[in-house]
Specification:
Order of helices and strands: HHEHEH
Strand content: 5-15%
Distance between the termini: 63 Å
Strand order of the largest sheet: 1-2
CATH superfamily: Alpha/Beta hydrolase fold, catalytic domain
CATH class: Alpha Beta
Number of helices: 4
Structural class: mainly alpha
Low-confidence stretches: none
Helix content: 40-55%
Mean pLDDT: 83
Radius of gyration: 18 Å
Largest sheet: 2 strands, parallel
Shape: flat
């Protein structure tokens, strides 16, 4: 298949997918919105506010869905942090928040 034809097909598919995605209710656009009610353990959400790989809204959508479902959760927002936790101070915060969460919901004794 000629390259220009492949590009046209990809462009058409992208437009169709975007249209279908945008027409869905916000809580079903991402898996978190659909499956939050099935959570059977407390959930810790940690998200960098400046993440360009996964939209910060993904975590807030999940938090809202967990709250609506009456599930225990905590959300930690890492200000000025990206997807890869590039800054040392936020890596340390992520680790300390994770340890605190595990000790709260799954203590050693």
């Amino acid at each position: 298949m000629p390259t220009f034809r492949k590009a046209a097909i990809r462009k058409c598919c992208a437009r169709t997918c975007a249209r279908n995605w945008a027409s869905r209710p916000a809580t079903t656009r991402s898996p978190p919105g659909r499956f939050a009610a099935k959570a059977d353990a407390p959930v810790l959400l940690i998200h960098g506010k400046d993440d360009t790989v996964v939209a910060y809204r993904q975590s807030t959508t999940m938090a809202d869905a967990l709250k609506d479902a009456g599930k225990p959760y905590e959300m930690v927002t890492l200000a000025s942090e990206d997807h890869w936790l590039s800054r040392e101070e936020t890596r340390k915060r992520m680790l300390s928040e994770t340890m605190r969460f595990v000790q709260k919901y799954n203590p050693a004794d």
